[in-house]
Design goal:
By secondary structure, the protein is α/β, with parallel strands linked by helices. The chain has helices spanning 14-26, 31-38, 42-54, 64-67, 71-80, 96-114, 127-135, 161-172, 188-195, 198-206, 225-228, 234-242, 274-278, 293-301, 312-319, and strands at residues 84-88, 120-123, 145-148, 175-177, 212-215, 218-219, 245-249, 252-255, 260-261, 282-287, 307-311.
């Protein structure tokens, strides 16, 4: 029987949005059909459908097994001894923004496939993590906790580290532990003093008990986030690359073989230590774009990843290396 909506019910309550969702997803009406039936614009219907997803009225689920069952996934898992690889199929002509969004959508689905009730989840920062947070479905994972793993930084381009952690925690109804400190301090002494503050010390100690960490890996090109966020200046970036660094994970720099490279600024940072990343059982790395090939390969070669979410062009690039 067709779902009908009376004019009197046209308010944006859950019932109204649910009925619109039924017309679209179950009965197969087009957005134009629904707009005509309700006497509103197609743009209004688009917004209502988006709102119904954001409010958890509509829960679109994709079987995680399907996302990791491709030949690309299996070959990469075998080569790098990974637990799972999830591939976002974007095609060779995809623009960078589309590849990032699609990879983040796949990562958001994979997140629910990987995270278990009771897990303590470390959340990193950057545009990729921001996109995952934006696409994460509103679905509770019982008794979970989310930890911000790097301090705050000022950037017009990036959602702050604490906002990423808070947003993900809200989407899965988890307890959230934010890190109330700057990412980079002006001196080693000040950073060391802050690390001994009780609230900061408790959070840093919590990193040793993570079950999951969600991060991307950044390259060290001229448009890298460690420049735009103010963590590094151009002179420091040049010095790092001269020393052999090809990428970074959270606050740690890695060389081509995946080995960590220490750098003075790390002594002034409030963030998770590389050893705490490596002791975390489930380490999810999400990346898209050929410009990250060297950094991603280094992270995989170093054994720093257990679960990877990649776009298909990056995955092919890794197999062709």
């Amino acid at each position: 029987m067709a779902t009908r909506i009376s004019p009197a019910s046209q308010t944006r309550d859950d019932s109204y949005l649910a009925n619109i969702a039924l017309l679209y997803y179950q009965e197969g009406l087009t957005q134009n059909d629904i707009a005509t039936r309700l006497g509103v614009s197609r743009a209004t219907i688009v917004n209502y459908l988006k709102e119904s997803r954001e409010r958890g009225i509509v829960d679109i689920r994709v079987n995680g097994q399907s996302l990791r069952s491709s030949l690309l996934s299996k070959e990469l898992s075998a080569r790098y001894r990974l637990t799972d690889v999830y591939v976002a199929h974007v095609g060779p002509e995809a623009e960078a923004n589309f590849s990032l969004r699609q990879t983040a959508r796949v990562a958001a689905m994979a997140f629910h496939d990987i995270v278990s009730p009771g897990d303590v989840i470390g959340v990193a920062w950057g545009e990729t993590v921001k996109q995952i947070a934006d696409n994460l479905p509103l679905r509770r994972i019982a008794k979970t906790e989310v930890c911000q793993v790097i301090g705050s930084m000022e950037s017009d381009r990036l959602l702050s580290a604490e906002d990423c952690a808070i947003q993900i925690a809200n989407r899965i109804e988890a307890r959230c532990h934010t890190l109330h400190a700057p990412a980079v301090l002006s001196s080693v002494q000040l950073a060391e003093s802050l690390r001994h503050e009780p609230s900061i010390k408790t959070q840093l100690e919590r990193f040793r008990s993570l079950n999951v960490i969600l991060t991307s890996v950044g390259g060290l090109s001229e448009n890298t986030h460690v420049l735009s966020s103010g963590i590094l200046d151009r002179n420091s970036l040049e010095e790092l690359t001269q020393k052999g660094a090809v990428g970074f994970i959270c606050s740690s720099f890695i060389k081509q073989d995946g080995s960590p490279l220490s750098f003075p600024i790390q002594d002034r940072m409030i963030a998770i230590q590389f050893k705490d990343i490596l002791r975390t059982p489930k380490r999810i790395m999400v990346a898209s774009g050929q410009h990250k090939l060297k950094a991603v390969k280094a992270a995989l070669d170093g054994g720093h990843v257990t679960h990877a979410v990649l776009d298909d062009q990056l995955a092919l690039g890794l197999l062709n290396e």
